[in-house]
């Protein structure tokens, strides 16, 4: 009897969730507006939770731009380069992060480009764009590359001259050098 009551309760909860999502979707539907296709709901997200990133990547491959609905709000996701450029560059002011996202992001990112809107964002973008220009990155990367190449040559020389016949994990060395390049340049 315990199993049956649990099954009934879960079924009832699922039915209520589906009804709530359908009601919300119907309420959001306006015949004068064109919406991106609804590609999933909270139920789809729960079913695909162990592989949620892959699921959303598959949706992006299928629809390019799509909506996901949950019980309280919907969200639009896009993988279309033109839309991404429009949101991040052309018409950024219409797509601000708002105070909710600022409160979440500012603890870890401060007033950096990923957390702020408006004038602060413009200032951060201007500073960042000059810092990441091709010439600046090339000059900085060359100096760090030379330093890391000398370190790598030393590691290889030590391994070659030692009698231990120990293998070198070159991928680990290259990953460390990549991380050091990024952290030195960004911070």
TrEMBL record:
Its EC number is 1.14.14.145. InterPro entries: Cyt_P450, Cyt_P450_sf. Its cofactor is heme. It is an enzyme of class 1 (oxidoreductase). Keywords: Heme, Iron, Metal-binding, Monooxygenase, Oxidoreductase, Signal. It comes from the Eukaryota. The keyword Cell inner membrane does not apply. Belongs to the cytochrome P450 family. This is Putative abieta-7,13-dien-18-ol hydroxylase. It comes from Rosa chinensis (China rose).
């Amino acid at each position: 009897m315990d199993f049956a009551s649990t099954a009934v309760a879960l079924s009832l909860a699922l039915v209520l969730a589906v009804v709530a999502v359908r009601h919300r979707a119907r309420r959001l539907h306006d015949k004068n507006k064109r919406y991106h296709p609804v590609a999933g709901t909270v139920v789809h997200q729960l079913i695909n939770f162990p592989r949620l990133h892959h699921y959303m990547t598959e949706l992006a491959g299928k629809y390019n731009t799509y909506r996901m609905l949950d019980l309280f709000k919907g969200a639009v996701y896009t993988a279309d380069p033109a839309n991404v450029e429009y949101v991040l560059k052309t018409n950024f002011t219409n797509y601000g992060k708002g105070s909710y996202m600022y409160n979440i992001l500012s603890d870890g990112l401060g007033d950096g480009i990923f957390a702020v809107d408006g004038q602060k964002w413009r200032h951060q973008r201007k500073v960042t764009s000059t810092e990441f220009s091709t010439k600046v990155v090339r000059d900085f990367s060359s100096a760090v590359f030379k330093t890391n190449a000398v370190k790598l040559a030393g590691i290889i020389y030590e391994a070659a001259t030692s009698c231990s016949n120990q293998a070198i994990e070159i991928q680990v060395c290259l990953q460390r050098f990549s991380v050091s390049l990024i952290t030195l340049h960004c911070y």
